[in-house]
Amino acid sequence: MAVSFLSHEVSDLCIGKPALKSLPLSATAGDALLALKKGGDTCLGVWATDRFSPERNLIAGKLCVVDILCFLCGDENLDSPADALKKPVSNLLQKDAGLVRRVESDSSVLEALDVILDGAQNLVVPIRSGGRRKLHHHSAGGGGGGEFCWLTQEDFVRYFFNSIAHFAPIAAHSVSSLRLVRSDVLAIQYDDAALNALPLIRRALADQTSVAVITDDGKLVGEISPSILAASDETVAAAFATLSAGDLMDHIDHCGSLPETAMGAVMARLKKKGLKGMLELLEAKLYPPFSSPSSSSDEESSRRPRRLRSAGSYARGSEDVIVCHPESSLAAVMVQALARRVNYVWVLDEEDYGLVGIVTFADVLKVFRDQLKQTLL
């Protein structure tokens, strides 16, 4: 197998990448929300100052709208989301600092891949490279001036897919034969309270996967996807506080905000639960002055399970879930995921379409890394 492409530097993966937008650690959750909405970015970097070297910046982590939604819906903030938005972003960062790591732009692709496989969710890479090759194996690699960009699991999978001819023997193998089908999926039942999904969503965000919404007999009817939630606004916090997982799944399909038909039901339930702060947040966002909210007659809005398309015709839209079968080839699964910009594919049984498991980019990258190890021996 030819492995010359491994001599490429990680900067090759950064070509065309936009500069990382960032906030200081002293910014508030509201500042982060405004920056995400104003800039149209899906995530922001958070920087801290090295107390030993004030001129030196440290990458403290990353934030997206999902982090803010989970924070607003926490037990300590549910009653007063407006106050929660005034708290520093340090309260929102995930505790595992290793999720964000820095590598130098002249590090090899293989070195950077090993950092990803060591548990990093994102790599921060200087856009301007210089000096001798150096790889920082800690979560808060120093950064003086200059600009940085993100690298993700998707970037590495796309890189290997573009060199798929080098992996011809395994590319045609089924995901089941490669032991890529994980059965330990994150799942919640359709009628469970959406708030029960929060711990699962936090984990899915860290793992770059999703939360399956299933029926009592284990059939997949849809998902609550962090990637879709990342395009939503703060009003979805009200849906988390009042709706079932199935209703939430349906409503976040509407361009990241609650549809008009759901407003009355959500507001009525907020009043019933005594969540005045959440109600005020929703009213301030959704209704201009002198307008009145929708009638609460929509309290019991109809629910529609999200339909799955037939095998072989899955398309990623807001209402479609990307799935495959255990005998689907690795190459086919990669094509599906890369085309629809997701880091995972659900695996369904070919006969009864029951949920079997999930294939993740993290595990796909391990397969490629194992093949390279054998080649380099």
Automatic annotation (TrEMBL):
Residues 317-374 form the CBS domain. Residues 289-312 are annotated as: Disordered. The keyword rRNA-binding does not apply. Coiled coil: none annotated. Keywords: CBS domain, Repeat. The keyword Amino-acid biosynthesis does not apply. GO terms for cellular component: cytoplasm; nucleus. It comes from the Eukaryota. InterPro entries: AMPK_gamma/SDS23_families (IPR050511), CBS_dom (IPR000644), CBS_dom_sf (IPR046342). SUPFAM superfamilies: CBS-domain pair. This is CBS domain-containing protein CBSX5-like. It comes from Phoenix dactylifera. The lineage of its organism: Eukaryota, Viridiplantae, Streptophyta, Embryophyta, Tracheophyta. The gene is LOC103719188.
